[in-house]
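$ run holo --ligand "zinc ion" --emit tokens
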Amino acid sequence: MLYIKCPYCGLRAQKEFSYGGDATVKRPNINEEVPSEDWDNFVYMRKSPRGKHIELWQHIAGCRQWIKVQRDTATHEIFQTAKVTEEIR
Amino acid sequence: MSQPFRLNKEGLINRNKKISFTFNGKKLFGYEGDTIASALIANGIHLVGRSFKYHRPRGFFGAGVEEPNAKLQVEFNGHSEPNVNATEMELVEGLSATSQNCWPSVNFDVGAINNFLKMFFPAGFYYKTFMWPKSFWYKIYEPFIRKAAGLGVASIEKDKERYEHKFEYCDLLVTGSGPSGLASAYAAAKNGAKVIIAEDKPRFGGTLLTDDVSIDNLSGKDWAEKIITELKSMPNVTVKNRSQVFGYYDHNMLVMFERVSDHLEKKSKFTPRQRLWYIRAKETILSTGSIERPIVFGNNDTPGIFLSAAAKEYMKVYGVLVGKKPLIFTNNDSAYETALEFKKNNVEPIILDTREEHSSELIDEAKSKGIEIRFSHGVIVANGYKKVKSAKIGKLNKDKNSFEKIETVDCDCICVSGFWTPSVHLASQSGNKLKYEEKIDAFIPDKKKQHETSVGAANGSFTLEESLKHGFENGSNLSAKITETKTEISIPNVNEKKYGAHDKFWCMPLPKNENPKRFVDFQNDVSVSDIEIALREGYRSIEHVKRYTTLGMATDQGRTSNLNGLQLVSNIENKIVPEVGHTTFRPPFTPITIGTIVGREVGMEYMPTRKTPMHEWHEKNNAVFVDAGAWKRPRYYKLGSETLFEASKREAKNVRENVGICDVTTLGKIDIKGPDAAEFLNRVYTNAWMKLPVGKARYGLMLREDGIVMDDGTTTRISENHYHMTTTTAQAANVLSHLEYYLQIVWPELNVNVVSTTEQWAGAAIAGPKSRDMLSKLYPDLDVSNEALPFMGYKEAEFFGVPSRIFRISFSGELAYEINVKSDHGIFMWEKMMEVGKDFGNQPYGTEALSTLRIEMGHVAGPELDGRTIPSDVSLNGLVSKKKDFIGKNSLGREAFNVESRQKIVGLIPIDRKSSIPEGSHIVQDQNAKLPNPKLGHVSSSCWSVENNNPFSLAIMKDGKNMIGKKFFAVSPLKNKTIEVEVISSHYVDPEGKRVRS
Ligand SMILES: [Zn+2]
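-- output --
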């Protein structure tokens, strides 16, 4: 079971969180014309990297905040966690 | 009642307390502190089971977790457990043990004929023998395997025992209380760290209990006792025996299995049987020690053959002799300690040492005590069927592959030592790639992967001095980093015997024309020849050899067989062991009970139960409940001997004719506040929300970004910046997360807050033509006329002195209202409604009637919004705004969503007006068409229309709207039914929606 550091609550067990997918995907702006290729990329296209991956998790059984987690998809090592307003590099 | 193999004084057992037990029906006794194994050996019993494939007689081989043979069916404390390791299970009064895998008895086993039908069981026999003819499988092979190859018998009784889970956090977890574990724990504890030390066995100390050593002038055992006593007295230390850390998972989480009360004769009602610990440790010391490995020789599975350290442990811990005429067969010095222990107890051993004549501290001591030592010697084959009687031994030539001389010597036990294998399972599970250590012919942990540090024998250090030093150093350094305190500890003076070098010898050659079975894996009956066959047949990868021969795949996980198997493969393949590699170690290290894994999550505690505030009333009024997620909802209220069908029809009819009330507390409720709330709703829902006035509700539809309908519900504007959203019961949690996602990540600029209020409000729907009359009695001071409280209107008013919210919304399609009061007032509201409703023919209705009402109205719900439908599929395109943007809008333009023949919701009625159409039925044109019969759609919801008194269903059907008036077949292979149906509009009752507005 992973041990995830919520930037608001501290280290918590994985069972308190739910996974939310790739954190680097940006939704096209609302009320703006979006080329259909961009839209399809946003809705459907995801990379499935082996190794470092910046992803979203929600602390559903805690503060309910969505957070960013940089995790190795092969080893589960977590390098960094951050608020969604913060950058992971 | 005498115990012929019990020593008079030796051992750590309590001789003041006799314990009686039975083995295969025979009454025996042992002492408190015995295992089943030690008590049986004390009684001279060695034959305890039959082997897996060949049904060969088997006895004890080890004294702990390494035991591959002695698995028994054990009954105690009123339950029966299979595959219990006799070398680990402590004796308790009244315990009864029986042999497994033998029929009719362990002494006369019919299956032993397999031993003479070896061609039936070569390597890969599962894959070869039982493949064909196919018809033989069910009639012959399968029953045969079930009878012959079964291990123990699982109980079919309900497990009455209590099991618990515990979550724990610590700075340092120490896995094993041998010298290095004790030293690590002690040093860390002195630095103020929070320490857990876990010992698998009942007694602490590991090898300190059996090795002839002294530490600071105390015997090993006394030193261990002193350290443990001190650790127990420290508030920052948790000391656990009978507790095995069996799994190392991600992020330094380890799982431990504690046997809490199996060894107790009496226990209190709430004492659990076993406990599972989830331990998140900052650092872990792996002090799991090592396991002696055997040397392979002919008939090496005969009862009476032991690992030499096990023989020593039986003497020193249990005061039991494994034999009185022992042969010690070794390639190293450690077995000399076993020989010396025999000698001390007036038993004369003969040592067969594969090494050439040389000298070391232990060899010299054995010589000086007059023990017979034969160098360059080994056991070729053990003689005796149910017990060792003699052994054919040979003097090896220099090449160690042929014999100078062969003779037979009498013996009643053979104690074998092929050197030591570090227990690296936890290190390997942590992700540590192991490395091969030439010096000890075994794998040890390599570079750290997580926060694990292996010390002592588990790390390949086989001297006490080194083990203690590493233990103290690592315990101190690892904990000092955490506590930032360092207490100096002086490393104690150690007195131990120096071992000479071991012989890299692991398998005895056979003389010409002799071919006894030589077992590598005892538990799975894998012999040298099986592995040779596998390699001959082309299996190369060790993982493949393992699966083909089943080497190391039994419950003992090859603890005594893995390395010998690797040696054999590498010899044949002309490789070195590290090139062959090792197989993967997986948790659990030893078998653990299913009860422990499940813990308290059984029956009612399997998941939380959510009950509405009116639950007790429903119970008292014969409600039959249905699970809606974790919620319990009344499905119907049973009157007399009514069936579900009759009751739901009565309840639904009463709503259509009079008035009914329904507990709708379970609907998801989300409070939405903030100056940008309207803008937010406008983006979340497909329809327009900017102009909804205060005091009005609106039905809304929300999509996922891919255009699929996510959920529907009504949202009410309570005040300027305050909305009350409802969701379906099933989607409540998902919708909240969905809203939070957009507010926190996508549009953080919107000033809006959302919070779940599902459990804050109790809700009741009042539905039916008489609902307004009833409402006016519930709110005598309120104007509830159609003008003052129109469809989709909202009011706040006192409900008999209690604040309440009134929503004029309808799911049933009738004139209806939903009343919300604070949860604490829910039962008050409900009882008041039942009382006031009497005059109007009010009856409560459950989810089944609720479904009937919405289905015949053509209102969609979960079965239609099934994650595959877009708004136009379910006739909700009127709610999709063309003017504004919203979540998922861009996807609605996809080509596949806009083809003319796209699926649509329709209604179905059976041609005979009688046959109910099973939900899930496929709609086909021709019921007799060749398979696969083209599917035109499926039946999503079915009911008995109370309005029209015949069955009615909703279906999602290709080109649905153009099919109206046509006839098809609804086919349900599951129910084995085919019903001819006619397609009609999905709005079967009140298509104009007049009633809700009346
Ligand atoms: Zn949090």
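-- notes --
The longest helix of chain B spans residues 464-483.
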